[in-house]
Amino acid sequence: MLSIKNLHASIEGKEILKGINLEVKPGEVHAIMGPNGSGKSTLASVLAGREEYEVTAGEVTYMGQDLLDLAPEERAREGVFLAFQYPVEIPGVSTTNFLKTALNEVREHKGLEPLDAVSFLTMMKEKMKLVEIDQTLLSRSLNEGFSGGEKKRNEVFQMAMLEPKLSILDETDSGLDIDALRIVANGVNKLKTNDNATIVVTHYQRLLDYIVPDYVHVLYKGKIVKSGSKELALELEEKGYDWIKEEADTTTT
Amino acid sequence: MSKDNQILEEFTSKEYEHGWNIDIEADQAPKGLNEDIVRFISAKKEEPEWLLEWRLKAYRAWTKMKEPKWANVGFPEINYQDIIYYSAPKQKAKPKSLNEVDPELLETFKKLGISLEEQKRLTGVAVDAVLDSVSVATTFKDKLAELGIIFCSFSEAVREHPELVKKHLGSVVPISDNYFAALNSAVFSDGSFCYIPKGVRCPMELSTYFRINAANTGQFERTLIVAEEGSYVSYLEGCTAPQRDENQLHAAVVEIYAKKDAEVKYSTVQNWYPGDKDGKGGIYNFVTKRGICAGDNSKISWTQVETGSSITWKYPSCILKGDNSIGEFYSVAVTNNMQQADTGTKMIHIGKNTKSRIVSKGVSAGHSQNSYRGQVKVMKRAEGARNFSQCDSLLMGDKCGAHTFPYIDIENKSAQIEHEATTSKIGEDQIFYCTQRGIDEEKAVALIVNGYCKEVLNQLPMEFAVEAQKLLALTLEGSVG
């Protein structure tokens, strides 16, 4: 589904990603871990198409297309979803209105009729249960005055509504207490099918107690320096990142 | 509703498409302005002597006045002697029904998406359509007449209800109030008159579409709304104008007179031709709008969505004379390209416990300049007066400007005044958040701007709100990226 080859990307002339290689198949869950500043969020942003980042080398193929060639909205319509680390506030625009606009854009792209108000609300009701989100929250201005947990729940709710093929969760666990973490993780798990894939970007292992990855990759200085199964995450939790850093630093020098 | 939407769709779709010109043999005054021209206009309209005298008084006052220079706008000197002050489409006889109306005129309305038949049938809105200064058709009159409501062209009101016109004309905006009001008073061609009798609640939105048609004719509309004791009316005004190369002067006057317990809601969506990308052409919109809450517990509410004109100079105001009277001003002013807007309001608190509320949302894009200018004045005897003002500016790009000029003038210590102001930019973060969900940049901007303006748009009647939202999106097209 997703194939990243030798991806290099920089921001304001500073190279952050220095040759990423990653293969993601349908039905898989990949965790990207790593110390602060290793390039995890950059990778998520580049995949979603954030314009501040410049891809200097490498290629990304998504469902047989050159992903880097697509505008952010085209990627979204093709099923790439980014759950933001810091969801943005849009005053005066309710989540409901926002999602209706987004969903109909995606549907139009697929050659489908826009959903009428009734079908949309029915769908919303159903998906609301997944993340235990409240109706009143959805009629408020998007993310404005939301708590950290509400924002993240809202991200996963949007994911449920848009039914992406490839979901990238960027530090979705940050700022969540344990109950919120469980709710958000449960939502993600329920959305998992054999046809879609998830990339979970996280600093800590604790999210992976709930969203169990098939693969764990450690990102350090813009490269994946270690890959393994879910046990690797536990090892990292126990020993920290220092040993990986040392290992990586010795091999490069 | 879907048919309505279709109408709105046609009305507001994509580029400025109302840029055509119809060939109606104009019956017009020679260029320039002097007492003879004023007499010509008055004679053309078969006006009574008192009105001619009133016009002449205004003209004489105007000649002694100077064009105001304090607004934060710049434009080449206007040559007032190079303007045609009267032009009317020729008609053989007064039409009794739509069938008798010049088909070319009807065609004009169709192009605008406001064909009268459809208006009548679908929207439930009575339309006093003004084309190039002369009203050609009025609908729903009979229904309104049953309630004693008068809604007609200004000329007709002068003929049919001279005592009402004479009593209220100039009572809110005196002839020498300001340069443009004086000019309007001297040469106004036509407009609308609305009278709501005591205790009557007008059951429908009253709506007028204005339109500038012949080249080089300034449009000088005059609107007078009188709401008797305990009455209510919601009045809509909407504008489009055809494309022009030369600047066109538009100096309208709107007066609202609200008596005891009366309420008037006045909504405007203004979409005059704004000029091209380089600021060439476009309408100069110098408007004086003022209402007086003359009686106790009366209320006047202005809502405006200003997207057009190359220059907007406009301050819909309220004189809160009656005790407990309320004045409101809700405004969205969008400027793009080379547009300039200096708009706001005046709230004059005279009566006790008077309240006013100002919500102004400015959106500037391109190289435009957008200024809010507002005055809150609390007079000596206005015990317990309250005002809340909120002035927000939204900037798009780094070549436009947003300015706020609040004037607060308090003569009574019990007054409570609040003023909030914010300036923000549409963030790349906000746009990326939308595009990541599949919404393209232009739609994202429209969504964000509509959200930002929501408090004001919510004040508009529903059909108008839909139209306004589309206009906002339209105005800002191409302003990002």
Automatic annotation (TrEMBL), chain A:
<keyword id="KW-0067">ATP-binding</keyword>
<dbReference type="InterPro" id="IPR027417">
    <property type="entry name" value="P-loop_NTPase"/>
</dbReference>
<dbReference type="GO" id="GO:0005524">
    <property type="term" value="F:ATP binding"/>
</dbReference>
<feature type="domain" description="ABC transporter">
    <location>
        <begin position="2"/>
        <end position="246"/>
    </location>
</feature>
<dbReference type="GO" id="GO:0005737">
    <property type="term" value="C:cytoplasm"/>
</dbReference>
<keyword id="KW-0547">Nucleotide-binding</keyword>
<protein>
    <submittedName>
        <fullName>Fe-S cluster assembly ATPase SufC</fullName>
    </submittedName>
</protein>
<dbReference type="InterPro" id="IPR003593">
    <property type="entry name" value="AAA+_ATPase"/>
</dbReference>
<dbReference type="Pfam" id="PF00005">
    <property type="entry name" value="ABC_tran"/>
</dbReference>
<dbReference type="InterPro" id="IPR010230">
    <property type="entry name" value="FeS-cluster_ATPase_SufC"/>
</dbReference>
<dbReference type="GO" id="GO:0016887">
    <property type="term" value="F:ATP hydrolysis activity"/>
</dbReference>
<dbReference type="InterPro" id="IPR003439">
    <property type="entry name" value="ABC_transporter-like_ATP-bd"/>
</dbReference>
<comment type="similarity">
    <text>Belongs to the ABC transporter superfamily. Ycf16 family.</text>
</comment>
UniProtKB/TrEMBL annotation, chain B:
<dbReference type="InterPro" id="IPR045595">
    <property type="entry name" value="SufBD_N"/>
</dbReference>
<dbReference type="Pfam" id="PF19295">
    <property type="entry name" value="SufBD_N"/>
</dbReference>
<comment type="similarity">
    <text>Belongs to the iron-sulfur cluster assembly SufBD family.</text>
</comment>
<protein>
    <submittedName>
        <fullName>Fe-S cluster assembly protein SufB</fullName>
    </submittedName>
</protein>
<dbReference type="InterPro" id="IPR055346">
    <property type="entry name" value="Fe-S_cluster_assembly_SufBD"/>
</dbReference>
<feature type="domain" description="SUF system FeS cluster assembly SufBD core">
    <location>
        <begin position="210"/>
        <end position="451"/>
    </location>
</feature>
<feature type="domain" description="SUF system FeS cluster assembly SufBD N-terminal">
    <location>
        <begin position="140"/>
        <end position="202"/>
    </location>
</feature>
<dbReference type="Pfam" id="PF01458">
    <property type="entry name" value="SUFBD_core"/>
</dbReference>
<dbReference type="InterPro" id="IPR037284">
    <property type="entry name" value="SUF_FeS_clus_asmbl_SufBD_sf"/>
</dbReference>
<dbReference type="InterPro" id="IPR010231">
    <property type="entry name" value="SUF_FeS_clus_asmbl_SufB"/>
</dbReference>
<dbReference type="GO" id="GO:0016226">
    <property type="term" value="P:iron-sulfur cluster assembly"/>
</dbReference>
<dbReference type="InterPro" id="IPR000825">
    <property type="entry name" value="SUF_FeS_clus_asmbl_SufBD_core"/>
</dbReference>
